Amino acid sequence: MYGFYLLKGVLNVLEEIRFSFFRRRLEKNEIQILESKFPYFSRLSEKHKKEFCEKLEIVLSSKKFIGRGGIRVVSAEMEVLIGATIVMVTFGWRRVRMPHFQKILIYPNAYYSTISKSYHRGEVNPKLGIIVVSWNCFLEGMTDENDGVNLGIHEIAHALKLENQIFYNGESEFFNPTIYQRYKMLAAAEIEKIGADEYSFFRKAGGLNEHEFFAVSLENFFERSNEFFEYNPDLYGALVQLLRQDPRVWVK
Ligand SMILES: [Zn+2]
């Protein structure tokens, strides 16, 4: 296993070099999609917009977007908006782009999983390095940008947490261990509150386990930053340090 991840790490570095030379460039209409449909981007300064676009180009060059369940052609909008969500969540790190997750599968609607024998809106498969989203649910999550429910952020948060656990992927241990411990301690208190049916800022799904809570807390971190900060400044502050960014800066 050690050798496998070491090899994977070397391959990732080589890929990194390749993508910086042969990068898929964003078209004008794609930047327009970001400006009109991705509020986080439209609020950035010109300098940060440039950085965001560069990172997005690398994400789009290095991941395969595959349509499933009737989606024959993956549109530019799908690639740009899903890619932008990855860039947003990882914007605090210049180089982190989650290389372990190379494939993004896109279903039109909630899809039936033969493994869990139930309908899914999205999921992450660390064994195969796949992130799955249903496009309808992804868009629904983006419609209300202040409700703290966003499928894209949710699934990418799951992937990010897993990516951090995978050693020798060239990006290992990008979560600062001390800050991560602090976050986990504060998160456990919230999970307990949800479990005890006490009032919590976070929705019930976050109380299931630490993985779900991480995903739900990131949805709120990006969508309801000010409210989250007011509710629990320590937990919010731990996430600012962990993700190395504070979305409140961009919120108008
Ligand atoms: Zn989840």
UniProtKB/TrEMBL annotation:
Gene3D superfamilies: Collagenase (Catalytic Domain). InterPro entries: MetalloPept_cat_dom_sf, MtfA_fam. This is Zinc-dependent peptidase.
